[in-house]
Amino acid sequence: MTVIEAVREALRQEMERDERVVILGEDIGPLGGVFRATDGLLAQFGADRVIDTPMMELGIAGLAVGMAMRGLRPVAEIQFADFMHAAADHVISDAARIRFRTNGDAECPLVIRTAYGGGLRGGPYHSQSIEAYYSHVPGLRVVAASFPADAKGLLTSAIRHPDPVLFLEHKRTYRAIRGEVPEGEYLVPLERAHIVRPGQHATVVAWGWVLHEALAAAEQLEAEGLEVEVIDPRSLNPLDAETLVESVRRTGRLGVVHEDTRTMGLGAEIAAVVAERAFADLRAPIERIAMADVAGIPASGPMEDFLIPDRGRIAAALRALARIDRGQRAVLSVNGRDTAVGSATSWSNLVTSAARDIPQAASVVEVDLSHAARRLEADREAWLRRGVQPSFTAIFAEALVAALREVPQANAAFDAEAHGIRRYSAVHLALSVAGSEAGARHGVVRDADTRNVLGLAMEIEAIRSGGGSDPGQLAEGTVSLADYGPGSALFGVPLVLPGHVAAVRVGAVEERVLVREHGFGLAPTAYLCASIDHRALDGVDAGALLGAMKRYLERE
């Protein structure tokens, strides 16, 4: 069946099953509706149950509310979603609030069907997407059917539901989308999303026509090795948050596609729900792919096509999204085996993989820390008031983060399977420091590039006093820094871990004789050693990273 045929079958079967079901709207009788959704129903059920109305959307909604409160099951058709706003008072102020206003004593089992969306050259007054307006209304369910089987199953469930339902049908799908539809009675739960296509690299949520464009984009990206999970929410209010959040926790990325304008669109609500419940699982910022904030669909066909997200635009956005990785996942693939970070064997596996699989090279510079020492002394009291013992480590961390802005290719990972480099958009600094008690402590400062030196110092102090003893967690970072402070070796070569392309080791700070502009002088100095993954970086990159750190630390 097509979508429009499935809608018609749901209406017919429910009218046959329940004599309380009546339909009303403009031209739904002899004409069969402007899209022929009600074709043949007048002949079968008569004018008492298939009611042609004048052009009066507010009146249609008001009649339907009254019918529902008197015990009928009305299905009202608003020809185009653009005209829903004329009916908004009865829909929002009456239908959606009846149960609340009467403390549950009254209900309003009403369905309003309407055709929405562009793509058929309807211009600004016959092409609107209205889901964001009405999904904002408590007490009103908003459902969008994008496939024929869902059109039948969701509409059947909506007619039987005790509360008002706004049932959205994208007009472009009416005859363009075909699919198998179960015979006989068929219901689809109103509150459950559908994973249309499983995937592991990104989640995409879409409905209506752009859902089919998203599926086409996912098929295109599959040929490039990118597996996209596509979810049809079906219910826009309430959202099936559990399905959405569970998917994003698996994939780490979310793109929301909708035909409506971007600002205050439903995509913003979906993004907020995921950010609130799965923020720690996101590996990239949430991407909204939507129509620009223009006042309506243009009458110009090329302009309309330019505005509505299509498969090419969706694929490009997802391709860019997949290149962003804000840190390693909790499970790493090491030597072909999945290893949980922080497990008893993870560090040995990581070291083995680093030594066997990563061609490593190292470079060294000596840094004059006179300026850093003066900064540390000037900030001593402020740090102590915050419970932080002054040390050079935070200044070294600050210098590394600053250097990565100049050398962003050092905040990356080498993808052996794709033979390419994946850059990280955020700096998650993996730190190894001397603990407050015997032994080293390890931890990750997430989003280190958003913190000032005191913020870094507080994070480092927390790692020093309460960090983990297992260095396996360092793989959760994007670049690593080791500083074991006074009493440590003057020079050490760090190990680049899987998922990183650079590591920096700081030697112990000691006073040495340095050549000054007009002679010699004593100054606190330290050796900085940078190791690199030679598949991703070369000696020039290592020199650039160390050079940037040196300039930052020695600047006056």
Top keywords for this entry?
alpha/beta, 7-stranded mixed beta sheet, Rossmann fold, elongated, single chain
What general outline do the C-alpha atoms trace? Answer: elongated
Based on helices, strands and strand pairing, what is the structural class? alpha/beta
The proportion of residues in beta strands is 15-25%
Counted beta strands: 23
What's the CATH architecture name of the largest domain? 2-Layer Sandwich
The span between the termini is 74 Å
* Helicity level: 25-40%
CATH class of the largest domain, named Alpha Beta
Low-confidence blocks of residues: 328-345
Number of domains: 3
Could you tell me the radius of gyration in angstroms?
A: 31 Å
Query: Helical segment tally?
Result: 18
Give average pLDDT, whole number.
91
CATH fold label of the largest domain: Chloramphenicol Acetyltransferase
Strand line-up in the sheet with most strands: 2-1-3-4-6-5-10
Q: Which homologous superfamily in CATH is the superfamily of the largest domain?
A: Chloramphenicol acetyltransferase-like domain
